[in-house]
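We both want to read discrete structure tokens more fluently, so let's practise on a single case. Would you supply a protein for us yourself, any chain you care to pick? Would you write everything just below, so we can both look at the same thing?
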Amino acid sequence: MTPLPYALLDRICDLGAALDEQQVAALAELLRHAHGDSARDGTARHARMLLQGEVLGMFDILVDTWTLLAPQTSGAEIGAALMAAGVQARRRDRPAAR
């Protein structure tokens, strides 16, 4: 696994917190198949069909950051980080059990 630059990890965490569980799972599954530049671009086009509004903009920024700072990082690694970010965001937002 490639260490993720802080800027990329920050974008992943923001997006994971903004999406619901189904969106995170669907996006992570799409990203899992992105290997190399052309696959990343194709995956990004497909993912844009799932998203709208603010989260679409967040995803575009994530892809730009990924392309510029960590192009060697696989889509599977980005997808796994996104799944973890989504789970962590939901745990953080869930009321504490008494």
Summary: The mean pLDDT is 88. Helices lie at 6-18, 21-32, 37-50, 53-69, 75-93.
